[in-house]
Amino acid sequence: MSATARREVRPERPPTGGGGSRLLDFIERAGNALPHPFWLFWIMAGVVAVVSWALAAAGAQVADPSKDGTIAVRSAISGDAVRDLVNGAVDNFVTFGPLGTVLVVMLGVAVAERAGLFEALARRMLSNVSPRWVTLGVALCGVLCKFLSDSAYVVLIPLGAMAFRAVGRSPMLGMIVAFVSINAAGDANPLITSSDVLYASVATEAAHLVDADFVVRATDNVYFSTTSAFILACTVAFVTEKVLTKREHLLVPDADLEEKARQTVITAGIDDATELRALKRTGLAALGYAVLLIAAMLPVDSPLRGKGGSIVESTLLNSVSVFVAVFFILIGYVFGRATGRIESSRDVPALMAEGVRDIAPLLVLFLAVSQFLALFQWTNIATVLAVKGADFIEHLGVPTLVLFLLLLIAISLINLLITSGSALWSLVAPALISMMMLLGTSPATTMALYRIADSCTNSISPMGTTFALAVGYLQTLRRKAGIGTLVSFTLPVAMAMLVVWVVLFFAWYLLGIPLGPGAAVR
């Protein structure tokens, strides 16, 4: 159907969302009333301090789950608390697990991103896609390119519009498919990203509340997340073709804006032959790096292995962030040199510095998170609540799968208001991880549950910054596009993805398939 034909069938007054729109308006107002996450963690620290004082005064304590004796709640409103927490404030921030790992990974990613490698790969992945497979192609790109972080939206949403426009479909629908693929499947990715490193670091610190020696690795969900990525991409494509296309006639761009968009050509700034040659060299470099790592892992006494030649508990997997950073630096440098965007090795540190500037807001948030977690851990509230919660659930006799379902629902609802995955994980992990460990559930399994609940509702929450970004992109083609426009198209996809992902997890759990290398699901 041509653009002209679509304009003819567009209703004069697009249908409104009715009660759904009113609910979304309420959620938007409630979310906007929340303070910035930085201040939210300080406010919660104050709440924890008051609660710890009350619980300590009431003599709250439990049997130590790891050894003989008891653990009592300690009041944060005391001289001991002030001395310990103030003296340890700097160490709490500097030694905060996610801080170092995220910094290291982003130093490498910044080189590849600013060299133009990610943009070139995304553009090549979407080229020459037939009309029949354009939806699946865009969905796969969205799911697989989440490792670009927020830059994935900036690159892929416009490219999704281009791909759909090229086959005579609504470019606005292409934007929506790209957005929901990146956003709702954000934690399903076959690659180890900075988010994986962050989640694993926070989970490790949370697990230490029960077992001081337990380590959660960034690879602990890789089998499950890799499988999920492709299944969710197919889900996006299926729902789009079976449900969203029935309303595609409503996504008609304004004529003048569409004409302007057609005249805009996205260019990489280099000729096609040079870019293709650069990508080939980059592919060879990536292959060479992989071969070197494999060769280095072959000897049983390799320093990249663990004690006794272990591969699961190895230097490679336990310090994967270092190897990921080196990988991105290598391929970014090779691509940049081949295209002329990197003139010499002197440019690399400058690109790294730009990457650090981009994640400065995250580092500021870490300051508040690290102090909150230190306070929370010092009070012993998490341990007491975990033991009490585990005892309560055990006495209820709730089946494990029912417990999982309740956790998924609760986190999904919270995620509508606190859309930062790292912030929400930092908030719930201490109590959630420790409680589930005491019930016999591995932190890797709890982390997989959180990934599902944290992802799918992102695309229907107006509180998210990327949601606002997507609305802004839609408005470049249709001035009256708004929250209701986006939600009415993302809601069916997001709910379908949530159902499919939960069913996949339950099947995975019942079959007992490992979630990652050495990470048993139960």
Automatic annotation (TrEMBL):
It comes from the Bacteria. Keywords: Membrane, Transmembrane, Transmembrane helix. Residues 1-21 are annotated as: Disordered. The chain crosses the membrane at residues 39-60, 93-112, 133-164, 222-240, 283-300, 320-338, 359-378, 398-418, 425-453, 459-477, 489-511. Residues 1-13 have a biased composition (Basic and acidic residues). This is AbgT family transporter.
